[in-house]
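Standup notes
- DV: blocked on the single-chain target, sequence here:
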Amino acid sequence: MFHIPKEAITKAFADYLEFRAGIRGWNKKEDGTLEMYKNAKDAFNNENPQSFKDKVYDVLLSKWGVRRGGNPKDSDFAFDIMSKKLDECLRNRSLSGLTPNDWPIMRGSILQMQDVKLLEDGISIMAISKFLHFWNPKLFVICDRTVMEQFVFGHKWLMKQRDSMDIGQHPDETKGDKQVIRYLKLLSLSSKLIKSNPSICREFARTIRKISTKSQVPNDIETYEARAIEWFFTGLAESRPSWWENARCF
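- DV (later): unblocked, structure below
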């Protein structure tokens, strides 16, 4: 395990805010996303597919780039899979609670979602990860092409750590499955970082409260580990910190 200095974690989140401020079209406040978390939770808890469509699915299409490269299946199709076909044990699982036994279940759930959006060259991890993130923001990290794939893991020193993660033996015969394996390795790296450094989530909570309306922030925001690690990775990628060289101890 690798313990990151507290001041380095604080800097990573400060760097994330600088990165965010430089992206045209990104809201300075996090209120919209926090409202989507609430709406998604209510829709799944109350089995309300119409609420999911109006308050989550349509927003993902119009503002989160989920239709980029082609439209996904309709909202009822996505809602049916998430509410009835995914392994229920993952609904409240967190990155910090993952064990080696979870990887086959995780992979199976991701593959259950593959028909939600198919591309010519395989499944869309971007779209799937965004849907799954709002199903469980404690576990599924958003992995979009621009920020996570190209910016964060476009840095070889981060890509090397991700690709070195062990998630057991899985079939790796198709390009689509390679994308799933790469995403699972991202979750594995995220899990190790969160387990070793719980202050990542505390600093995330402090940061999100700073840029959000107080009444919008969930009381359990510190448990939204997947969002926390996404922001942390983005902040790290802004400038390569010297202490990361010691991360080989993973």
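- Follow-up: Residues 6-238 form one domain.
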